[in-house]
Each structure stands twice: as C-alpha cells, then as structure tokens.
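Dear Dr. H.,

I hope your travels went smoothly. While you were away I took the liberty of generating a structure for the chain from your last submission, since the lab meeting agenda had it listed for discussion. I wanted you to have the full record in hand beforehand rather than looking at slides cold. The sequence, exactly as received, is reproduced here:
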Amino acid sequence: MLSDNDHIEGLFPEAAQNWDLNRLYADLQVASGKEIKPFEKACLRGLLCRYRPGQLAFKLTWTSGALRVELNKGLYRSLEIIADQPINTLRWEKVPEWLEAKGYRSQRQSDRQHSTNTQSGTQVTSRGNLADWGEAPNIQTFYGRTEDLTKLEHWIVRDRCHLLAICGMGGIGKTALTVKLVENIQSHFDCLIWRSLRGAQPTAQLITDLVQFLSNSQQPDCSISDLLEVLRQKRCLVVLDDFEATLQDGELVGAYRQGCEAHSELLQRVGSERHQSSLILIGREQPKEISMHQGEDQPIRYYKVSGLQRQGAFELLRARGFTGSENGLDALVQQYRGNPSALRIVAGTIQELFNGNVSEFLKQTALALGDVLRTLLYQQFERLSKLEKDVLYWLAIKHRPVSLSTLRSEMNLQASGSELINALESLRWRSLIEKVSEQDEVMFLLEPVVLKYVNRQFVDEISKEITAIATQQNLKSINLLQSHVLVEDRAPDSIRAMQIRLVLKPIKDKLTKAIAQNNIELDSLRERLASQHQVQTTEGTSYTEANLALIGLWW
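The corresponding predicted structure, in token form, is as follows:
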C-alpha cells in the first residue's frame, strides 16, 4: 500500500514531460528560503497540467478552503517571486503562462532529434514508417470491441476519413480502443504521432510540435497552413488524446480555453480541405466542429464508445478470477453497462468482500463506484455549466426516462426553452446522458454509474444547504432546495420510495446531526424560517416550502 507521500509524489507525472521541474523546485526553494513541501510540488505539477484548485484538493483529499489558504501563503507567493510578478496577483490559470515566459518549459527531446531518438517514443517501424507514440499508454490486455475496431478501421483505411472523434465518458475505454486501432492501421501511414493535450497546450505550440516531427525539420513558429501542407505531402496519422482539456470549464460544450481558440480552425480545416491524412481526437466531449459536420457520407466522423458487450465483459471478469459461470454475471454487466473501469473495480470488491459471490453482491442496494471512477466522474462533472448540473440533478431525482416537456415544466428555469435544449445537447456530447424513444417521444435518462454519482452530489449539496440553514437560522443559502423537488408527489410508488431512501433520508439524517451538534431548538427555528420565507417569496415555481416540510423544518 502506498504511503501518503508516495501517493502525493505520484500525482500529475505528465508535468515532467514538458517542464523542467527540478530547476523549478530549486528556484522556488531559493525564493521562499525553505524546502518546498511534497504537496506544494504536487500542486505545482497539477497547475502546470491545467488542473483547477478544486480538482487539486480532491486529488490530495484536502478541503478546497484549506488548500487555498496553504497555497496563498506559500507556493503562490514564491511563484510570483520567480516570475517577477507583483505580490498577490497570481491566478492559478496564469501559472503555466508565467513560467513558460521565464523559460521553464522544456523542449521535447523528440522535437530536437527526430531522426535518431528512439528512447523518447520515436521509432522507425520495420516498414520504414516514422512513429512517435508520445504519451500513449502501453495496452497489455484488450477485451472485445471487435465490431468497433472493424468499423473504425473501415472509416480510416477505406473511406480515408480526415477527422475522427472517438468520445465517451471517463473510464469507458476510449484510449485503449484507439491504441488498438492505431496498432492495426499504422502500416497504412508514412508517419504516426500521438500527443496528449492534458496540459491544454496552446494551438501554436501544438502545431509547431506536429509539423517539426512530421516534416523532420526544425521550422519555428509553424502555422495551420504549414501543417496542412505536410498532411498533403505525406499520409500522416495524428492522434490527440484528452481533447476536452482544451475546452473551457463551466460552459456548454464548444468554448475553448484561452490560447486554444485556434483549435477550432485546426479541426475545420483538417476536416474540410484536401489532403491524404487522418486526425483522430479522443475525449469525453464531442467538439462542436465534429457534431455540426459529421456524417457517414462526410470525411468527418464521430464514434461514441459504449461499454463492453457480453463476451468482452466476461473476458475481463475471467481475467479477474471469475469462471464465467457464476450466477448473476449477466446482471452485473448490465448494471454497470459494460463500463470496463467500473467492472474492474467491482470485480475486486466482489472477490475481496463477497468471496467471489456475485449474487450476494447484487443483493446490496448500492452500486460501488470506487475512487478511480469517482475521480473520473468528478473531473467531468466539474466542467459542467450550472444549467447542465441542474438538468443532471433532475434526471437523478426522476430515476426514470424524462421528456423535454416534463423537464421544462418542472424546472425553475431562468433560462429559455432553447437554452434547455442546448444544455441537453451539450450533455449528450459530453456522453453524460442517454436518449431513448418511448411512444414516439424522445426521453432522457442517466445510466446507473452516472446516476449513482449525480445522486450523491445532489445529496451532498442539499446537505450543505440544510446545515447552513440550521447553523445560520436563515434561508439565505438556499439554492437547490428552491429549484429541485426532493420527493415527487405524483411519482409511482416505487419511485417515491426510492427518492425517500436515496435522497430524503440521508438529508434528514444530516439535519438531525446539525441540530444536535448546535443545540438548536427546532420549533424556534421553524418559526424564524417561516417569517423569513414570507418576505423572501420568489417569482415562478419554488419547491422551498414542500422541501422544508419534508425534512421537518416547516409546518
């Protein structure tokens, strides 16, 4: 088992690929006059990879507030010194920009020695094809997906697809599928280059990196036109992983981060202009340039990666100690929709805690997410706009397929109907909601793994509001309590029972604990809240009174 320091030192290793970390650590130590702490090194690496402070806190298992305090009195001040910036001017998103200006970004070895460097990932294959696998993982085992590979190979090799987006939720196996695809089709290309965009590399740097490798030159400051010229001269295969890192957090799908705006032009031109090459994007979100122009009759294609089919899922489970004949395996695969990351996690849980008894595990009421999958879902959830989060919360509450008209009528929206449609479309492009048809009407729902995570997030957020109400004895902090119902009056009995068990009960337990810890007199609190609410009544639909009554804070 890893110690805490081992865990911290193992975070964000990809920063070492593009930054001179040893020199950075040394200069920061000189600037601060004391040794830089392991958690500060980890935060620095995370910031260089464009992780947000809230995401860093999650990775370090700190609270966001505590981490911000520590960074503000330590690392941030030292970074201002070595970057020659005024005191108290640091914003986390400026760290890579400031440090790059001071020369701390290292030039990739593969950029300097394309023709001879085999240790950095550049290889010449037996057919003479030049390949730089970059940050591509080494996939030792691969299960199922024969039909997926056949279709994708057909698109690239026979249809000569220019631009292909391979998308899906975190942990679904996008990168593994793409590695296997590239291994199968590599011989059809003169050059292969694989790059991860996790560090949100600005467009200009990415283009220069690609052109220098593909043309075996040291040409500086390359343009998109230069890249297109190379793609015309040679049959090149370019793979860009973690594409969602170039997109803006807190917005609907499509807005690019500062410095990455020209990625839009890159995709449009690669997809529309004449050349003989292929660009594959891998990500959790479908770029709008793909969604607007993709089609079976177009050189731009989109492929959503779903969970493993039965055979592939059984192969994965057999590799983790199951025979394949256990009762309940089919139900297990269906419950987790064949998500390979989820199945790996739950397989370990069943073997360790249930002695491999799948049926006994399935009798338990809760899905097991595990830290790895929970982290992947957290990263994706944190990128959403407020409206997208509100939609997910409603779908989690409903626990069944919901139509657009139902969502529109029950949501307390400040946004217009068209904005709701845009939010639903954005969530579909992010692979977070599923679409089904019932009686010729389109319905939306969450798959079980996402539903489990969103429900937990909803309960946590409501619990914070309830605790604030109890401790502050006012309604100033309410948000979700006003805009989302906790238990539906007209829902089927089975759904109401589930809402009571999964939502209402844990929230009431949290309130009981807060009241006991703060010695609060319940009747007095109710009277205070009732008088405030009469003054604070808002326009439109509000679920405040019904929700407060359900949790016991209203008569």
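Two observations you may find useful: The CA atoms of residues 10 and 184 lie 32 Å apart. The longest strand covers residues 191-196.

With kind regards,
E. W.
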